[in-house]
Amino acid sequence: METSMSEVANEGTGKLYVVGLGPGGAEDMSGRARKAIEACDLVAGYTVYIDLLHDEFPEKEILTTPMRKEVDRCRKALEAAAGGRSVAMVCSGDPGVYGMAGLIFELASEYPPVDIEVIPGVSASTGGAAVLGAPLMHDWCTISLSDLLTPWEKIEQRLTAAAQADFVISLYNPSSHKRPDYLQRACDILLAAGKDPDTVCGTVRNIGREGEEANIMTLAKLRDTKVDMFTCVYIGNSQTQEIDGHMVTPRGYLQRED
Which CATH number fits domain 5-122: 3.40.50.300, 3.40.190.10, 3.40.1010.10, 3.40.50.2000? Predict the structure, then answer.
């Protein structure tokens, strides 16, 4: 039986948590995130992320949608919360970093009032950085190479600007079946913008999950490295070093005069 929006509005305001799970499994989930999920009777999310929770919360009612159905997923979560339910919209990493937090707020005005609370999580950038060592110790930026929502021309401008400003760069979505050469193209843009081919770089795949794998290499070698959507890529700045098998960007403490 269908429910009208007026009927939903009369059912009472619910709670919608937008929860960051961290980059991997349950070990990277914060205590606050765990409490939020425990407090909910409905957990919504992308199928891959929901799979990470089955063992931890087998009793929860689940709402899933596949990739590229983000709007549908958020609408269903808002509808449930507007109907008085307590809902957790779960996201990998941090929900405010390429997650669902922004879309939830964009859509919320179309529904009866819902109490929305964002629960932060360890992002893929910081989670992968810890695996490599300390590559993000100084100014850095994050750029997604996916052009599904951002024109490639804009991505190219951002890569060029980041290289010229000597930021450490973490790259999300570096490759896919439809975009097998995007990391190579990004490296060419960075090199053309003045990055040294010997710049220290790193990759981490399956951060915090089974099969986690990390590698450190030069920018020249990174250009010809095969990666996938489960890989986070790190490109150092002019000061980044490899120290005892770790990727490290000095903050400048040892160079500062006391």
Answer: 3.40.1010.10
